[in-house]
Hints:
The protein is α/β, with parallel strands linked by helices.
Amino acid sequence: xxxxxPRVIIGxxxxxxxxxxxxxxxxxxxxxxxxxxxxxxxxxxxxxxIQSLTKELGEKTTSLMIGAQNxxxxxxxxxxxxxxxxxxxxxxxxxxxxxxxxxRRYFGENDALINRKIKKAVDSGLHPVLCVGETETEHNDGQxxxxxxxxxxxxxxxxxxxxxxxxxxxxxxVWAIGTGKNATPEEAQSVHCFCRQILSGLLTExxxxxIVILYxxxxxxxxxxxxxxxxxxxxxxxxxxxxxxxxxxxxVNDDSxxxxx
Length: 261
Ligand code: PGA
């Protein structure tokens, strides 16, 4: 079965950019981006910038989605410093990154918590982007598939395939994030293909074929094209290179001119 998934490129700004800087970026981005109907661009921005950016976008474009980088697994409550999915939806967020390796490593998030967050994101009307990936030690020990299978299976436990129709997966080898090291396009393709097999088992093949799987970890304009050529790499999650308008535009504009695989 051949299924044409949309191309999705998401910038993950992490803890960068004030509201003023974010608005300036988006204005300049929109004036230079060569939009293409087959491609969607997302920006996972700091909480403070979500509402201002969605207001700034207004009706201007449907190809640029604004999202968050995390959320709590409860709807409300005495959780100082946390944010609920429904607050993100109200602010205009369309998607939320969950289980990013920095959340797992620095904030102790495990698969059970990430699973509850995905459920709450779906209930709140957000598209969850479940991030998975093995550490360098796990990679060197040949544990990649075992780790990815566990993160996908536990992360998606108890959620019906229908609820997951807007799910995206981001495969980000932890050893490639912010390090300048890369998985080769062939290595990344093999893990993406493995993810799709696991998703087929969890959600049915029909649904697995519709799920967008992004690759992330030191993506630059110099390696984006060779990654995107791979049949199971449907898009990119870009950290460092999404912070500069020039490098982000270079990746997305280059890509939208060569969308066919
Ligand atoms: P990087 O980050 O592109 O800077 O490696 C990717 C990510 O953490 O999502």
